[in-house]
Amino acid sequence: MHDGSMKPRSDLHPYLRLYSLLWWVILPFALLRLWWRGFKEPGYREHVAERLGSYSVKPASRLIWVHAVSVGETRAAEPLIQALLQNYPQHQLLLTHMTATGRSTGKSLFAHEPRVMQAFLPYDTLSMTQRFIAHFQPELGLLIETEVWPCLLASAHAAQVPLSLINARLSERSLRRARKFSTLLRTAASQLAFIGAQTNEDAKRLQSMGAHNISVTGNLKFDVSVPSAMLDAGRTLRAHLGPRKILLCASTREGEEALLLSGYMSATLPPDFLLLIVPRHPQRFDEVAKLFEDQGLRVMRRSQLAHEVLSAHVQVVVGDSMGEMFAYYAACDLAFIGGSLLPLGGQNLIEACACGKPVLIGPHTFNFAQASDDAVSRGAALRVDNAAQLFKTSFELLTDARLLSTMSEAAQDFANAEVGATQKTLELLIPLLN
User: Is the domain of 403 the same as that of 425?
Assistant: First the structure.
């Protein structure tokens, strides 16, 4: 283990000191926001001391640290964490998060793995990140996707703890934003031991921000296997929902449900059609259900489903459960991936493809640009411009069994063809851990 010692504070860039000071200025508001979010998500009121760099748990052996900010990153990290546990049996793993749902997902995934510890990452001040590094003394830190925090990287660099950015992505939009803080971020990027980028385009954009030692490893999300228990749960859910044609609108974001409602109300749909909508954030379950109910639609919630088949009078089902996204994909006939009707970047379409489901995506998919383009080009997905076109395309697909089957096969082939990012990432870690 490292001793957690730090270089003299005089080594720090003046901008970094100012950035750390700004965090202290906004800290009261950040804590108030935690308390406010805790009204709907109690997890935000738990372990608050950890967000300030104070921890009660401590590793008993050598430690590898993985930071996965929220649900998507935590799921993406699962195959890598399992591989690390298998390849480095003498190590414990620390899995850190920023969101309560991310932590809950990690707890669910690794509930039976005693070598995995969990904690919240502290806010990005110098003193808090220094305490975090000194307390856990990791041999190596792995940051998932976009988590480049200047004070965290400076603290780890001073303690000689190598940090790497894996499954890294940087869209053109994010690059433009990053350039506004280029002085800080260039220094932070230069302190990374290596970067495993998802695509060649991501690698080029990261390099333009001063990053080095970049390898293209692919997307870890292709390596996530569909749990058999979720497939079973999906079959059970489908039996409860009945034989109707099911369009799943998955991981929808604020503002999108109103667009979907408008499209639904004006659409011509098959008589045996059922809309299943799963908001991305659990605090919005009630809001989304009320939105559709206020239009006079008959709405049922996933949590209200009894063991019998859903009534034929129900028009909309709101998925108000956590950790069941694979089951929702397994239960549907066709999946629309949320976050893409509005300029939010889109959510992960790979999970739907891994379940062999045809995919519809909106025009805004910059968070998954390469995967989205590849899925469309391989016939696994179709892109729609708006909610009206979404329901029109859904009608065409759900009434054409042959086309739906062809897209299902293409989706499965697409998901299977891109595996391998976990192994490529592991190979890059070997020099740092041995």
Answer: no
> Is 336 within 8 Å of 390 (Cβ atoms)?
yes
> Please, are residues 377 and 347 in contact by the beta-carbon 8 Å criterion?
no
Total of domains in the chain: 2
Rounded CA-CA distance 288/278 in Å is 9
Same domain for 326 and 379, yes or no, is: yes
Mean pLDDT by 10 residues, the chain (434 residues): 45 79 95 93 94 94 96 93 95 96 94 95 96 97 91 94 94 82 80 93 90 92 92 94 95 96 93 95 94 96 82 94 93 97 95 97 94 96 97 96 96 94 94 82
165 forms bridges with which residues in the sheet? 143, 195
Class of residue 401 by CB neighbours under 10 A (exposed 0-12, middle 13-18, buried 19+): exposed
Residue 287 lies in a domain: yes
190 and 253 share one domain: no
Q: What is the pTM of this model?
A: 0.86
Catalytic positions, written as ranges: 73
Q: Distance between CA 95 and CA 110 in Å, rounded?
A: 10
Provide the phi-psi class of 156: left if phi over 0, else alpha when psi is between -120 and 50, else beta: alpha
